[in-house]
């Protein structure tokens, strides 16, 4: 690979990172759903994730503080770093982890990674001035149809007292936060390492101490004291090390290589892999509505890969 031209080498690296994102996101859905059945609460898992990833990143960030500040925009580094940490750190984790306590993995597969291109396209049109091709619009229409199938069926079940619709709304909101994160990274030209460090440091500095104080004071319900240390250690390594650091770096690198809209289309295998794997691994049946939504979303993702978006160059420097 060292003998390849820089542009081609970058595309190979981007493709490898895309495969890593698919594998890690699929695993994330399955592990997060299983975690909802154990001792830790949604915010406990987020707390462990932020503490582990922040402590891992801290010494590297201190060593390259000047480069990190420059990568986040110099004078705008603090505001941009805080924004990314709030959106892709606290916002995404609080919404996604909470959703798994209400809705099954198949719903997560359709409504989080499956809906990501839809929200990314919306944000990209307004923030990046991207123009979408007819194929991509058709793909987004299929994704909307899939979301309506899954979400509509959950709303009908709400009349029977079921709470699945709550998880569906949280999954959609989580997908929106991650889409906005990807588009902002592209707009501000923030690299993979800088973006991931900003999220990890921001959550370590703000979310971890605030939550720790809340738990210690008895203001926040928590299962940390009752959870086995193996469960906490696993969540720390998987959520903080793999899901946040490794997947965050890989995703942001793919965005930098292929752009946010095409990146989210490249995750087309995640919904099918996660939903189908949940049947034998988690014992969660794939209902008719979920299966229909999965088919629509997968078709939409594949249609979106037909041609790249025609992009209008940004006027001037990104704000």
Residues in helices, as a percent range: over 70%
Largest sheet: 2 strands, antiparallel
Name the poorly predicted regions: 309-319
Beginning-to-end CA distance, first to last residue = 35 Å
Q: State the total count of DSSP E strands.
A: 2
Structural domain count: 1
- Averaged pLDDT: 88
Report the radius of gyration as a whole number of Å: 19 Å
The outline comes out as globular
Tags for this entry?
319 residues; mainly alpha; 14 helices; globular
Textual characterization of the structure:
The chain has 319 residues and is mainly alpha-helical. It has one domain (10-311). The protein has 14 helices and two strands. It has helices at residues 6-35, 42-63, 65-71, 77-99, 105-111, 116-127, 134-158, 164-188, 192-205, 207-216, 229-258, 260-265, 269-282, 288-304, and strands at 130-131, 310-311.
């Amino acid at each position: 690979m060292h003998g390849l031209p820089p542009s081609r080498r970058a595309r190979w690296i981007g493709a490898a990172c895309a495969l890593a994102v698919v594998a890690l996101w699929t695993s994330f859905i399955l592990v997060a759903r299983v975690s909802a059945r154990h001792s830790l609460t949604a915010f406990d898992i987020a707390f462990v994730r932020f503490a582990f990833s922040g402590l891992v990143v801290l010494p590297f960030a201190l060593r390259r503080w000047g480069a990190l500040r420059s990568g986040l925009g110099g004078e705008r580094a603090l505001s941009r770093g805080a924004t990314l940490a709030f959106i892709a750190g606290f916002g995404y984790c609080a919404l996604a982890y909470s959703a798994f306590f209400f809705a099954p993995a198949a719903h997560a597969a359709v409504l989080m990674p499956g809906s990501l291109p839809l929200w990314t396209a919306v944000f990209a049109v307004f923030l990046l001035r991207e123009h979408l091709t007819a194929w991509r619009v058709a793909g987004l229409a299929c994704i909307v149809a899939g979301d309506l199938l899954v979400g509509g069926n959950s709303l009908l079940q709400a009349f029977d007292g079921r709470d699945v619709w709550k998880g569906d709304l949280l999954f959609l909101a989580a997908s929106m936060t991650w889409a906005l994160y990807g588009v902002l990274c592209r707009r501000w030209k923030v690299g993979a390492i800088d973006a991931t460090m900003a999220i990890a440091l921001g959550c370590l500095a703000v979310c971890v101490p605030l939550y720790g104080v809340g738990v210690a004071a008895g203001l926040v319900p928590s299962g940390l004291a009752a959870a086995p240390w193996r469960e906490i250690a696993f969540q720390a390594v998987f959520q903080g090390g793999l899901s946040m650091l490794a997947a965050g770096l890989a995703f942001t690198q793919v965005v930098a290589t292929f752009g946010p809209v095409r990146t989210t289309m490249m995750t087309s295998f995640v919904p099918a892999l996660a939903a189908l794997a949940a049947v034998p691994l988690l014992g969660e049946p794939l209902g008719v509505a979920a299966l229909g939504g999965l088919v629509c979303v997968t078709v939409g993702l594949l249609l979106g890969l037909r041609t790249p978006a025609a992009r209008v160059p940004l006027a001037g420097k990104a704000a």
